[in-house]
Amino acid sequence: MKAQIRLGAPVEKVWSALTSKEDLERWFCEYAGLDLEVGGSYGFGGRFTWLCREGDSPHHEIVQLKNQEILSYRWDLRDWEGRIHPSTVRYRLKQDDQDTLFELKQMVEGERDCPGLDFNSAWGVYLQLLEAHCEGRSFGIRFHFSRKTRGDLRHHISIRAPRDEVFETISTTEGIKKTFARTCRLFEAKPGGSIDMAWEYETRPTKVCECDPPFTLSYNWFKRGEKGIEEGKIIWKLKREGKATIIDLAETGFSREIDLRDDDLGWAAVLSDIKRYCETGRKAMWYAIKVE
Fold this sequence. Notes:
Blueprint: E1 2-7, H1 11-19, H2 21-27, E2 31-34, E3 42-45, E4 62-66, E5 70-74, E6 77-78, E7 84-85, E8 87-96, E9 99-108, H3 119-135, E10 153-159, H4 163-171, H5 173-179, E11 186-187, E12 195-196, E13 208-212, E14 216-225, E15 228-241, E16 244-252, H6 261-280, E17 289-290
Antiparallel strand pairs: 1-9, 1-17, 2-3, 4-5, 5-8, 6-7, 8-9, 10-16, 11-12, 13-14, 14-15, 15-16
Helix pairs in contact: 1-2, 3-6, 4-5
């Protein structure tokens, strides 16, 4: 997996975000402990850490370090079935005028198509938080990876943009392509309207259930469980709060047996992308992420 983004901050500020305990605990992890030398520990863990379980070691060996240029460390990922996937993460920084070109690469050993190894969503959330931290903007969602969501999930986010603009982003083909599904072919924002995300799998949404601009939007959503495919809903509710628009999102209508952990993280990334797009005009972070 690799990604490259431009951060509107000098290298010194980005380097501090990656190597300062106080900075890391603001955007990346719940707790950090650093011994910044090759062979030392790039320590992080807690509820904001991807695939972290209680009792996991927070220590990750530093394998390469060059001040304000390269930081690389080992990170053993434990998937939802308990299997360990050794990996190496490398950050590379380069000053470009007043900005920083930030390159991320994570090299994973062995099989990667395993439950919980959603690199797009996990790093999508992290990179948006890093970007907002370095540029002094308000955060999207700091996702609690300890959540074990089943049957129903809910998210809440504040966006500094007019409600009409936010609603247009979530209810038009063009807006969805820039923030949620780049393959979207059709989204008819009316009750009974058709949806074509051009997804290959059978659990894709197919029709709009409710559309009341700029307040409410819902459409059907499908998940596979042990007893077959169940149909639920995605419900968006928008309200004004001062100069901000608040989105309350729910994925609901499923039985408790339906595991929604992947969707839970996915929607956190999507909502953060919507916030980023509406506030800065930048397309979804996953456009910058490539999983090979």
